[in-house]
Amino acid sequence: MFRYGYVPFMLIGLNGAGIAVAAAGAPKSWLLVILGFAIATTFLVERVIPYDPEWNHDRADGTRDRIHVAVNETLILASVAAIPLLAAIVPAPQLWPHDWPFLAQVLTAILVADFGITVVHLASHKIGVLWRFHAVHHSITRFYGLNGLMKHPLHQTVEMAAGVAPLILVGLPVDVASALALAVAIQLLLQHSNADYRIGLARYVLAVNEGHRFHHLKWAGIGDVNFGLFTLVWDHLMRTFSYDSARQFDSTQLGMAAKPDYPNGYLRQVIYPFTRSGGCALKATTAANQTPDVSIPDPALKYRC
Question: Which of 32, 55, 134, 239 could form a cystine bridge with 194, CB 3.0-4.6 A?
């Protein structure tokens, strides 16, 4: 039940509940209740069918991750609340398909946001100033639900702006944006969940944890794959998709090989990208199936450290 029912329950059940709440114009606080239920469900499933039981144990990072979640989820909610103000300041042509069924509007918003977020995510692995802030997310050494929102607030803001700004410019309704915000949070839980669930061939299309673990491999260049948030469609088109069913993951393969002592505390992680040591130097790429002392120089990937 947990192995095959977890993903449909989250993607269809809880997102469906959120869409129903948003479409009915109910108080937005109900979306927070649904999100809380999604987090609780994830924690339960991670303990019933863990991919790696060791990842369920706190490593002096639990409180830090909860702070990241609180800050970044607040930023997401604030961006939704700011939509009417932004619409007043920057009048948008009414190109949004208001006459479509509400579900179709939400799915359209998800696909558009997925493209913008994926592009910024890819750029964050290639452009030094973006990597400084994105590196906070890649410092993790265990893979579990709350990792999804374990991000530097500035990078979270840039990613969400890339995903939502084009939608706002064509008249995205607040109710649709609210359902999209919940969908983002639920997807991040699924994508980083320490649950050994099954979705069959859908793993080649949906950006869930099976594929996203490859993205968190710690060696430069090797982890530059599977950038999508909701889908892997753009990764297939950009040829950044990677998957190997035989690959097994543990903590020794996660994090950043070039920065194994990345700051662990919340405030230090927020400040570190602004420091001189928070940048990157030219590093060598280590193949995923080789030991770390066997490296392949790749100047094109100098910022992945």
Answer: 55
User: What share of the chain in percent tops pLDDT 70?
Assistant: 90
- Backbone torsions φ then ψ of 196, nearest 5 degrees: -90, 65
Residue 80 makes CB contacts below 8 A (sequence gap 6+) with 28, 174, 177, 178, 181
Q: Are 144 and 54 in contact (CB under 8 A)?
A: no
Within a domain: 293: no
| Average pLDDT of the residues in 216-221 | 91
pLDDT of residue 221: 87
* Cβ(189)–Cβ(145) below 8 Å: yes
> What is the domain range of residue 94?
2-278
Structural domains in the chain (count): 1
Is 222 contained in some domain? Answer: yes
Sole residue written with tokens 């999100």: 35
What percent of the chain is modeled with pLDDT above 90? Answer: 80
Q: What predicted TM-score, i.e. pTM, was given to this entire model?
A: 0.88
